[in-house]
Amino acid sequence: MSAEAACSTALDAARAAVCRDSAAAAHLKLISVFTIFATSMVGMSSPVLVARFFKANQSLYDKALVVIKCFAAGVILATSLVHVMPDAFDALADCQVATKHPWKDFPFTGLVTLVGTILALLVDVAASSHVEHHVSYKALEGEEEKELVGEGYGGCDDDVERVVVRVEEEVARLKQRLVSQVLEIGIIFHSVIIGVTMGMSQNVCTIRPLVAALAFHQIFEGMGLGGCVAQAGFRFGTMAYMCLMFSVTTPMGIILGMILFSATGYDDSNPNALIMEGLLGSLSSGILIYMALVDLIALDFFHNKLMTSNLGLKKVSFLALTLGSASMSLLALWA
What we know:
With 335 residues, this protein is mostly helical. The chain is 88% helix and 0% strand. The chain contains eleven helices and no strands. The two termini are 35 Å apart.
C-alpha cells in the first residue's frame, strides 16, 4: 500500500470515528421525530385546506383540484423514480449484498419494481370492477324507480339524464378514493423505509443534514398525497385519519429503527437491513410509478372532460406537473 493510500485510509477512519456518536445520533433522531411529524401534517393538510378555500366558487374549485392533483402527480412520479428506485438499487448493489448469491445473479431491484407495478394494476382492476358493479346496481335500482315514476307522471328525459350523470360522478368519486388509498399504501412503505434506515444509523454527519432534507421531503410528498385526497371528497374524519397515518409513519419508522439497533446491534449498513430496504423500496417504487402514470397523469390529461375542453387549464396543469417533479427531484441533492 502506498503512503498516499495509507494516509487516505487513516483519514477516512478518523472521520468515521468522529461522526459515529450514538448519544448525539439518538438526540438528533428524537428531534427529527417531532420535526418530521409536524412537516408531514403541514404538507398533507395544505392541499385540502386550499381546495376548501375555493369551494365557494364551484368552477374555480374544480380547476384548483385539477391543478393540485397534477402537482401531486409530479411529486409522486419524482419520488418513485428519483428517490425510491435509486435508493433501492444502491441498497442491493452494496458490496456486502451484491457479492453473494442470489443477489449477484439477478437484477432484483427491477424485478421487484415490476412486481409492485403488476400488483398495483391487479388491485386497481379488481377494485374498479367492484366499484363499477356496485354503482351499476344502484343505477339499475334508480332506473326502475324512474320507470315507476314515469308510469304515473308521464316520465321526463331530464330526470333520466340526471340519473346517468349521478352514476358517472359516483364512479369517478369512488375511483378517486381507491386511488388515494392505494397511493397512501405505497407512500407509507417508502416513509417507513426512510424512517427505519435513519433510526438504525449512528452516523451524526449523515443524520444532521438528513433531518432538514426529510422535513422538506415530507412536505412535498404530503402535498402529493393531500392533493389526491382533496379530490376524492372523503369525509373530514377519513381525511384526518389518512393525514395522521401519513404523518406518523416516518417518525414510527425512526423509533422502530432505534429499537432494532438497540436489540440487534444492526445499523443501516448491515447486509440484512440493506436487503430489506432494497426489496421494500423496489416494491414501493413499482406501486408509485403505476399510480402516478396511470391513475393520476393519464387519467387527468386524457380522460378529464374539464381539462380536455380547456387549453389554458391543460397548460397550467402541465406546468404544475413539471413544478412538482422538479421540486421533488431537487431534494435528491440532500435526501
